[in-house]
Write a structure and sequence with these properties.
257 residues, alpha/beta, Rossmann fold, eleven-stranded mixed sheet, 5 helices, 11 strands, 24% helix, globular
Amino acid sequence: MVKIGIIGGSGFYELLEDPREVKIATPYGSPSAPAQVGKLEGVEVAFIPRHGIGHTIPPHKVNYRANIWALHELGVERIIGVNAVGSLQEEYKPGDIVFVDQFIDFTKKRDYTFYDGGKVYHVGFADPFCPEIRKVLIDSARELGLQFKETGTYICIEGPRFSTRAESRMFRQFADIIGMTLVPEINLARELEICYANISMVTDYDVWADKPVDTKEVLETMAKNIDNVKALLKLAVPRIPEKRDCPCSKSLENAGV
């Protein structure tokens, strides 16, 4: 059984030692790609590339339910999601890593829950990210001397287009960074009582700033960030406590109707 899962881009394929491919059938269809299971600094880890092999799946078409269910089937109890984001605030600079502690959902037509009927759960979400994993990530980033923000609010939009200037100006009244893939990944993990923490890589300033979003610029900054995040994961993952002492593992208690 694999207890730690990572969901991110294809740039993280080389992260694991001696990975083996594991194909998992789920009630929700196929995951974005078969899980890669291997060692990370001696710890067994499962990795799923969110956008598929070669980044072929746009954010609004990712089968989030299948991805989370597949990791659950492997025995995963803790997930670290890695996302590329734009900045809505001057102080959140391109190249920064953000350890998100809140989010706002502005998506429109995704599959948000495993409980579509029969059994109904209203899962509490006041504090959506696992405090135990966040602490390990923050402490490890500080030790590595990385450029990071300890907190941040992520607004998740539908995509695949970027925002208009009017939308961006509105969003920055409420959030610090903007992306397209956090939701419903985090919702679904909570419904299966899986801990979830996020590493957001700031690639650009969103269009509230003078310069419009440029995909080429985003990809160049992200490539530089990936090396930092890989170093962070290598240091942090072995430090994640095996025994959970956080509210995530009891998310369904008193949530059922």
